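Sequence, please.
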């Protein structure tokens, strides 16, 4: 496959690097619930994963110039712990709702295996992994609708989703990528993005030119850094997970198995 264009020429005339990191295990990950925009903290295991991810990046010789996270606690905690492990707790960073997890609508808070038993494996898989089939929406008066969360009170209510498919997540995440991350890469900076399984799946789809059908098979493990190196035209030269490859493959498979009855 030829190198992929991620947007614009690097004016610094030098390679640049971006690392994508999914947050560590959260409380609702542990309980196997659809989490989405619901705000939950990391578990003890998740904290350890975040710290280990930072140590892996440190051992890789990475040193970041800037970081980005979502506004959800599990991503914020992961960024803080990973950067502390790298001796960079002071790193400038920006948090933004466009990096949030996919909104799972009326599924938020439901157990994934129980949802499979109720609606069937095919329907649940469509909701979880299809590119353009959203789950049923959350009602406007539901506590799971973003309108009930004060962290979004300054946003136009019309941009707040009641439910999203991955296509919707790509549509809201890529503008942030191009407006905020790409200019930093053009300047030759090394950038960390700490986000979620589906917001990162959307970025990986874009960067690696994965088809709408094939993206269903991509499962991103928690706490594992994925490194991208770009040339001076911001074409992807290399993309790889950092760490024990067998353990990473097993962790990705565990994500795939979450909804199996």
């Amino acid at each position: 496959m030829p190198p992929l264009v991620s947007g614009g020429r690097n004016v610094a005339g030098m390679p640049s690097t971006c690392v994508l990191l999914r947050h560590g295990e959260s409380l609702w990950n542990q309980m196997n619930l659809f989490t989405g925009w619901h705000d939950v903290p990391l578990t003890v295991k998740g904290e350890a994963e975040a710290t280990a991810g930072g140590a892996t990046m440190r051992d890789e010789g990475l040193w970041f110039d800037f970081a980005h996270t979502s506004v959800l606690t599990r991503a914020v905690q992961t960024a803080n712990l990973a950067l502390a492990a790298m001796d960079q707790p002071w790193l400038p960073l920006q948090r933004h709702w466009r990096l949030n997890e996919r909104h799972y609508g009326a599924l938020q808070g439901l157990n994934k295996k129980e949802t499979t038993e109720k609606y069937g494996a095919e329907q649940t898989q469509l909701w979880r992994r299809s590119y353009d089939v959203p789950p049923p929406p959350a009602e406007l008066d539901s506590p799971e609708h973003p309108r009930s969360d004060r962290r979004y009170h300054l946003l136009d209510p019309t941009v707040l989703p009641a439910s999203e498919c991955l296509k919707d997540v790509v549509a809201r995440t890529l503008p942030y990528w191009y407006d905020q991350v790409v200019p930093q890469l053009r300047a030759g900076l090394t950038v960390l993005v700490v986000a979620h399984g589906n917001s990162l799946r959307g970025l990986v789809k874009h960067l690696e030119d994965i088809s709408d059908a094939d993206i269903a098979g991509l499962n991103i493990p928690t706490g594992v850094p994925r490194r991208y190196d770009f040339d001076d035209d911001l074409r992807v030269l290399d993309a790889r997970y950092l760490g024990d490859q067998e353990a990473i493959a097993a962790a990705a498979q565990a994500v795939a198995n979450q909804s199996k009855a």
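The chain is about 35% helix and 10% strand.
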